[in-house]
Amino acid sequence: MSDTPDQKKTTPAKSYRKASAVIVAAGRGTRAGGTEPKQWQLLKMRTVAQWSVAAFMDHSQIDQICLVIHPDDADHAAQIFRGVDVTLVHGGATRDASVLCGLQALADHAPELVLIHDVARPCVSAAIISDVIAALAHSGGAAPALPVTDALWQGRDSIVTGTQDRTGLYRAQTPQGFEYAAILAAHLAHDGPAADDVAVARSAGLDVAIVPGAESNLKITHPADFARAAAYLEGPMDIRTGNGFDVHRFGPGDHVVLCGVNVPHGRGLQGHSDADVGMHAVTDAIYGALGDGDIGQHFPPSDPQWKGAASDIFLRHAVNLAAQRGYRIGNVDCTLICEFPKIGPHQAAMKAAMAQIMDLDVSRVSVKATTSERLGFAGREEGIAALATATLLST
Fold first, then answer.
1. What angle is formed at CA 378 by the lines to CA 374 and CA 382, rounded to 5 degrees?
2. pLDDT tens-digit profile of 214-226?
3. Strands 208-212 and 159-164, sheet pairing
4. Which of 52, 203, 273, 348 is the most exposed place for a label (fewest CB within 10 A)?
């Protein structure tokens, strides 16, 4: 009597925890331009190969990495990966020959699983690596891919000659994962070129599961791809905004200092420093965006060394502190609140002075003024207030 559907037994999923990685880096990559192969070109201060190796080294389920290199690159690779736990292996004349070299180098380790990855995909995510390993619990092979969504044409001599149905078509990516013994046997038995390791696996009768790929897992092929990869590696930009507010009363004097400019006036502003109310507000806005207090905490008024100090000292400190923490100034906006002196005639000079201190284009600095309609201390001409906003962008 045959089993009913409810009685049929399913094969239990295999349980894998660790895998080895073979990263293929023996190609020359001439289409990417540059004076050296693309895997050794810099991408955000690291080589493409370093990014790809790091993606697997940082993954908790990868316990060994084999980097397959061109023999001509041996000294260069050894220097770049000095002190890094990665095995360097010389590759062959073709991609599949290089993969076989990497697989054979793992023989003594004899891993259960191996993930084979193109070095030119430096933005591969931990999630994709995990998904490939997880899929191998149910299939002899697994690889990430994206479904083809664009219309497909056939063409000759720059003329469309036909169309191609895109139903069921995918854009293949790496890493492509397999049981180690099975893919090693498949490569040893394979005769002839192969588009990738999935092709080798399928020729040996292995089923290959498709897991979701990602647009960010791009393969660097042309010069423009370096900029795309850099953008993905930067991740989402961290944008911070802070506000600053300051007030100084009038006292004896013949000028006021506003946003770094001496403005003639019948009275001066009182303060422990030069009382530049506009620059103080901008400085506090930057500290606020960093979540790091205000001027008084960094430059206590009780400290006599700051008596009469030029306020650009404070602003430069705030800008440098932001840079140390990985931020640059996107823009600042300062509003001076007073009846007198008139700000308009000095506005351009104030913008230029602030821009120079913060190393910004003047278009990223706004200085403007308003009155309080004769209301409050500013309306009574007892002092000047300033309100500022600063935006910080991660670098």
1. 115
2. 999 999 999 999 9
3. unpaired
4. 348
